From TrEMBL:
Keywords: Oxidoreductase, Peroxidase. Pfam families: An_peroxidase (PF03098). It comes from the Eukaryota. PROSITE patterns: PEROXIDASE_3 (PS50292). Gene3D superfamilies: Haem peroxidase domain superfamily, animal type. This is Dual oxidase-like. InterPro entries: Haem_peroxidase_animal, Haem_peroxidase_sf, Haem_peroxidase_sf_animal.
Length: 141
């Protein structure tokens, strides 16, 4: 088996695992009802994703994003001041250098997502597209 075959086999396993978790664990918990068992591929069902569904699913995911993330130290204690999301959009390296990737990942992994609703946090609504200052050097000839 060549490297590409190993990669593709592992990829199929990861995708299948994620789909199984989503279909049989996440969706039933979200909808508060069980999903039907998979009965095999049906050629009569369109397998694509409509633009409307894609847009709605994309926006729905944004309602789960909290306004910041917590940090946990090596003893698994939360640090008192979370880091605001808008301060790390384009460059999280300062937070990672200051606290280390372990504290950032442990804090994010133990943080509860926002409630499923139609509300987007201010950091996504107003801060994501704020004007960023940068130096532009133009030479006219």
């Amino acid at each position: 088996m060549v490297d590409e075959d190993v990669y593709m086999k592992a990829r199929r396993m990861v995708v299948a695992t994620m789909q199984s978790i989503f279909l049989y664990e996440y969706l039933p918990a979200l909808l508060n009802e069980p999903t039907d068992e998979y009965k095999g591929y049906d050629t009569d069902i369109y397998p694509g994703v409509t633009t409307e569904f894609h847009a709605a699913a994309f926006r729905y995911g944004h309602t789960h994003i909290p306004p910041g993330f917590y940090l946990r130290d090596s003893m698994c204690r939360f640090r008192p001041n979370p880091i605001r999301l808008c301060n790390t959009y384009f460059d999280a390296s300062a937070a990672i250098k200051m606290y280390g990737i372990e504290e950032v990942l442990m804090g994010m992994a133990s943080q509860i997502a926002e409630k499923e609703d139609t509300i987007l946090i201010d950091d996504l609504r107003g801060e994501l597209y704020r004007l960023r200052t940068f130096r532009l050097s133009i030479t006219y000839t």
